[in-house]
Write a structure and sequence with these properties.
It is a single chain. The chain contains seven helices and 16 strands. The protein is an alpha+beta fold. The strands form six sheets. A three-stranded antiparallel β-sheet has the order 2-10-16, with no helix packed on it.
């Protein structure tokens, strides 16, 4: 699940500036002392990716607060996020949770989103930054599932050469649990998933901040011989390469391996398909940003964002955009939550969401 980190100024990351990193090392600075941006060692790269749907082309989601093979979505939660039920079909990727008919993809329970009304709807993606589409690789569906014809333009974290970077679900905050059997064996986790380390990240991709990145210390007694004993972490999650990507730009073979390795998603936007259309105006795009705002809604995604409605009272879309840009660039005397949200938005996202907020007062 490009789970999917979404720490993000993305559709899913509009509140990144309001979140505190729980890190365990020094954070980076992306400018020299004279204020000049440094050369970047990271990039935000893009791919067009299909996602897991049922046989009626309805989107399926995972929940970050679930455990492997265990749903933590209770009865109230299920009113908003209905279970995707079915049966075992012999697939190694899609199986029911023990004692239930609730299906899971690579041990991650699957759900619908109640607000999705038509095939191709993806309104549940990145709600509260804990609900995510499943960008399953080709060949991992069964008779109850398929890959969408609608595509998502997914922005994900790579190094400067556009080599994909991944996180590992079995790591804990600021701690890597990926090591070879011995430092000299050349076999095991670290040989397959080499660590990413740079002493200086330089200028950072849009939608990320220096506070998002820390350096963690690896266990020197266990680290692969000749490899770094430090590692860059994004929002506390150590970053890795995947050896079978063969150092190829934009190769993403490591995503969803064993259900525990994932790309670091920075942004996600539906780009079309034969069941839905690309948003045609600012209002459509703004509605999706608004829907996915992690600070605007409850965890179920259906809270009322009073701050946004109040901003809508200032006037038309142009005046709302002007206010949000002021919050992004200054914010003195304004609501701290809304200032944090504004600082996490790009100029285009501010334009889009302003157009949508302007419709809320009608």
């Amino acid at each position: 699940m490009e789970k999917k980190m979404k720490t993000l100024t993305q559709i899913t990351m509009v509140s990144v500036a309001t979140l505190a990193l729980i890190g365990c090392g020094d954070s980076y600075k992306d400018k020299n002392e004279d204020g000049v941006s440094k050369a970047s060692t990271l990039k935000a790269s893009n791919r067009n990716a299909a996602f897991l749907v049922d046989t009626d082309a309805m989107s399926l989601y995972t929940f970050d607060k679930d455990a492997l093979n265990k749903s933590n979505c209770d009865a109230e939660c299920q009113k908003i996020w209905p279970l995707f039920n079915g049966a075992n079909t012999g697939s190694e990727d899609i199986k029911v949770l023990e004692g239930t008919d609730h299906l899971a993809y690579r041990k991650h329970p699957l759900y619908y989103f109640a607000n999705d009304k038509a095939p191709g709807d993806v309104l549940g993606n990145n709600v509260k930054d804990v609900w995510h589409l499943v960008h399953a690789p080709a060949g991992s569906t069964d008779s109850q599932t398929a890959l969408s014809k609608t595509l998502i333009k997914q922005t994900f974290l790579t190094d400067k050469d556009q080599r994909a970077l991944y996180t590992f679900d079995k790591d804990t905050n600021g701690v890597s649990n990926c090591y070879d059997s011995t430092p000299t064996s050349g076999t095991g986790c670290e040989s397959i998933w080499p660590v990413f380390y740079s002493a200086d990240l330089g200028a950072l991709p849009e939608g990320t901040t220096a506070a998002d990145f820390t350096v963690i210390n690896r266990d020197a007694a266990r680290a692969k011989e000749g490899e770094p004993t430090q590692q860059v972490a994004y929002k506390g999650k150590p970053l890795y390469y995947f050896t079978p990507d063969n150092k190829e730009a934009l190769s993403t073979k490591g995503d969803w391996v064993k259900g525990v390795w994932h790309l670091v998603e920075l942004n996600a936007q539906k780009i079309g398909g034969d069941t839905t259309s690309t948003p045609t105006n600012n209002t459509d795009a703004g509605k999706q940003i608004y829907t996915n705002c992690a600070s605007c809604h409850r965890e179920d995604g259906l809270g009322t964002p009073g701050g946004a409605i109040k901003i809508g009272e200032v006037g038309d879309a142009g005046k709302i955009e002007e206010l949000l840009n002021f919050m992004k660039n200054d914010g003195t005397g304004k609501n701290s939550i809304m200032v944090g949200i504004a600082k996490g938005l790009s100029e285009q996202q501010i334009k889009d969401v302003s157009a949508y907020i302007a419709t809320l007062k009608k």
